[in-house]
Design brief:
Helices cover 62% and strands 0% of the residues. By secondary structure, it is mostly helical. The termini are far apart.
Length: 263
């Protein structure tokens, strides 16, 4: 099943990779991200022991989770949902309109669309969050959300560390103010929850928001991965020296399976 969707996804994306080189570069970033989210989803399903048809369906949802990003950028030249459209909802509309899932059984189709539409929500709907641990839709949504966050963290760390400056589309147009950060983005980290996009005022706030995602991973394999890869260490390295930042770092690394030695 997945091989067929790989071909459809590739053809779909190729239709957008034309024109201005900067636009192509930004959309290629989303294509590569989607493929890496698939890899992360495979890692998580294997670690959790999800197999068979359910694993295949989750992998398809992971591959297609960001199909809405391409028409979103084509129409608005941004990846910010708040100033354009909800890319997850747009993605499900695209999939329905194109009939990409039409050949699948209704239950499988609903699971894939459900995982996609929930992947970018601040939190899972109450009914899904409270579902039994082996509930297929809950598992699919949680795997895709974790896989998505893991690769976004990689993308952003690499973007922050690259030479040649930052792309305002990737960093949401936030200004670089090296010594500045917002207490509103430190507080969620200290309280064990995820920060809000609307509280961001500068690039360091984006770093703090990304760090706060450590509180929203659903599987031990995801937590191990984010610490072992040193992603949080690198995000903290870009933040200013301040007692609030030090406290946030201590709070985060209490969650690490191997302390700061993970990096």
């Amino acid at each position: 099943m997945l091989e067929r969707f790989m071909g459809m996804f590739s053809s779909y994306v190729d239709g957008y990779l034309t024109g201005d080189p900067l636009d192509v570069e930004r959309l290629a970033l989303k294509r590569d991200h989607s493929l890496r989210v698939l890899d992360e989803a495979r890692m998580i399903t294997q670690a959790v022991g999800i197999t068979g048809e359910l694993a295949e369906s989750i992998h398809v949802a992971a591959l297609l989770h960001d199909v809405g990003r391409f028409p979103q950028y084509a129409a608005h030249r941004t990846f910010r949902d708040a100033v354009s459209v909800n890319h997850a909802r747009l993605g499900t509309r695209v999939l329905r309109r194109m009939g990409m899932l039409a050949h699948l059984p209704p239950r499988t189709r609903s699971l894939i669309l459900g995982a996609i539409i929930m992947h970018n929500r601040l939190a899972l709907p109450r009914a899904v969050a409270a579902a039994a641990p082996d509930d297929p839709l809950s598992l699919a949504a949680r795997v895709v959300r974790d896989a998505d966050k893991l690769d976004i963290l990689r993308v952003m760390v690499e973007h922050f560390d690259q030479a040649g400056g930052l792309d305002e589309v990737v960093t949401m147009g936030l200004p670089e103010r090296p010594g500045d950060f917002s207490p509103e983005l430190v507080e969620p980290i200290m309280r064990g929850r995820v920060g809000y996009y609307q509280d961001m005022r500068c690039i360091n706030d984006l770093r703090l928001l990304l760090i706060s995602w450590v509180h929203d991973f659903n599987f031990p394999a995801s937590v191990r991965a984010v610490f072992h890869r040193g992603l949080l260490v690198r995000l903290f390295a870009g933040l200013p020296s301040a007692k609030e930042i030090t406290s946030a770092r201590e709070r985060v690394f209490r969650l690490a399976p191997c302390g700061e030695n993970c990096a």
